[in-house]
Amino acid sequence: MVLRGGTSKGAFFLADDLPADAAERDDLLLRIMGSPDPTQIDGIGGAHPLTSKVAVVSLSDAPGIDLDYSFFQVSVDEPVVGTAQTCGNLLAAVGPFAVERGLTRAAGDRTILRIRLLNTGDVATVSFPTPDGRVDYDGDVAIDGVPGTAAGIDIDLTGGEKPLLPTGSVSDEIAGHRATLIDNGMPVVLLRADEFGIHGDESPTDLEEHADLREEVERVRLAAGPLMGLGDVSRQTVPKMFLLSAPRGEGAISTRAFIPSRVHTSIGVLMAASVAAGIRIPGAVGSDLARIADDSVTGIEHPTGVFPAAVTVTRTDDTWHASSASVRTARKIFDGTVFARPRR
């Protein structure tokens, strides 16, 4: 089944419908999506990281958990399937998919499910409309980066055992740049845009054409990966790299995200949660640029609008903690049989 979740689009599978062997599974996903090929012309990928995603869902055997969700980032032009990150945008569609596939039943006018994100260990509570026992995708909620409106899907995320600041420091010096390494559901690196010679309001296309900039950002990313406990990230898509600048509109901060070689046209749910948590910590990169309101909603400006990230940050002794909530939308696009490219 193909569903849009938030500002991403992906292929959704039941876990039992894919090979149990990881190598066989990854090979199949590459052939389904049409990778490696920059156009993905021989598969169902959309030639962009935001549309070359896979979600795998199953019933959970963990106490108090309804569903298990695994995320796979299928590289567009390399034969790589990344598993080090999750996707908060596709998370919005996991519950509706489970009801559509009969994994779980709708419960009244609004179904609430507890979902374990297997990639990271986080747990999310997701609520979505199911009048008359069916998922209702229609509604009046608009999110920047998606045309039109749809039904609102509430997502509340609680972190696992991993620390909010993986190095224990509010900021670190990495490859000649001051950086804040933070993981509030998504490992990200916060950097100042002006340190890289940009204003921070450039379009994604302009930034992608700046080869020297991409190389410098990647140099920092490769150095940050091991510090965040991610090991060698040369073939992974995390951490996500954020260049921060002062807000241009009514938001708290302006962002441009490298994910990692392409620049995000908007922002992911968990990316926004990590950025919002970071700029609320005194001394973190971007905290001096941010315009923080008294409430918990932090407007994260991105190339196509503003993401309202509801994030609360607290400190116990020397340890920082965060919780986050967001409203996304999702839509079922296609349900059918996909034929993988023949083996070569």
Can you tell me about this structure?
By secondary structure, the chain is α+β, with helices and mostly antiparallel strands. It folds into 2 domains: 2-158, Diaminopimelate Epimerase, Chain A, domain 1, CATH 3.10.310; 172-321, Diaminopimelate Epimerase, Chain A, domain 1 (Roll). The chain has helices at residues 22-33, 88-100, 204-208, 211-227, 269-279; strands at 2-5, 8-14, 53-59, 67-74, 81-82, 110-117, 123-129, 153-158, 172-174, 177-183, 187-192, 240-245, 253-258, 297-302, 305-316, 319-328, 330-334. It has a 17-stranded mixed sheet that branches.
Topology:
Blueprint: E1 2-5, E2 8-14, H1 22-33, E3 53-59, E4 67-74, E5 81-82, H2 88-100, E6 110-117, E7 123-129, E8 153-158, E9 172-174, E10 177-183, E11 187-192, H3 204-208, H4 211-227, E12 240-245, E13 253-258, H5 269-279, E14 297-302, E15 305-316, E16 319-328, E17 330-334
Parallel strand pairs: 2-3, 4-6, 11-12, 13-14
Antiparallel strand pairs: 1-2, 1-17, 3-4, 4-5, 6-7, 7-8, 8-16, 9-10, 10-11, 12-13, 14-15, 15-16
How do you describe this structure in short?
By secondary structure, the protein is an alpha+beta fold.
Provide the CATH architecture of the largest domain: Roll
Q: Class of the largest domain in CATH?
A: Alpha Beta
The helix-strand sequence is EEHEEEHEEEEEEHHEEHEEEE
**Unreliable segments (pLDDT under 50, ≥5 consecutive)?**
none
Distance between the termini: 25 Å
CATH-assigned fold name of the largest domain:
Diaminopimelate Epimerase, Chain A, domain 1
Q: Helicity range of the residues?
A: 10-25%
Distinct helical segment count: 5
Largest sheet report: 17 strands, mixed
What is the count of distinct domains?
A: 2
How would you classify the helix and strand content by structural class? alpha+beta
Average pLDDT for all residues: 95
Keywords: Isomerase
GO molecular function, one term: isomerase activity
Pfam families: PrpF
InterPro entries: PrpF-like (IPR007400)
